[in-house]
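G., the chain you wanted modeled:
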Amino acid sequence: MPVPDPLRNADPERVMLQTEQLRMHHVNLPYEVGGSMIAGLVLAAVQWGSVSHAAVFGWLACLAIVHGARIMNDLAEHRLPVGAREKWTLLRRVHFHSAVHGLTWGLAALLLFPTNNFEHQVFLALVILGMAAGCLTITAFDVTAALLYNILSMGSLVLRLFIEGGEMPLAMGMMGLVFLGVTSLIALRAYGNVRVSVALRNAEAIK
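Predicted structure as tokens:
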């Protein structure tokens, strides 16, 4: 039996916001999964000669499982009768996937990080930062999903760069922290704009 959404009847504006967030998550799912898998395959190919092959295969398998589970969950949700789609419960599942997706890319910063190979370290950092920017673009309407992914994916990279030590890795780690802070502020601002837009639409609907 689905868990009742406590805000479904009490706050029509919140329900409208949740409905729009779920719709956008569904629409953007192919871009999220496709972009992540392509970036993962490119990263694996470039790092192949610099890290353990077992680490590459293991990480790619984790990424594929995470996205496969997300696709199956999305398909299952859309088979539910409309009345059974408790929005808050469905959003929590999406947020859980965002967290696991972020953790998987954070794991790349640990498993696919080549010690004493600065060129490949830079490439890894660029891919992870690029994924964070891409995720922000397609999840700005849901600040929880955006922040979960960005913090969990980039936190491991920053930590690994600090552990590596040296002038350039430390500088890259600091820039990673700056990037994380800026993208978090952008996500909060974008989410605020989405809420204003939904509030205006709700006001129009009840006129």
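The two ends are 35 Å apart (CA to CA).

Shout if anything looks off.
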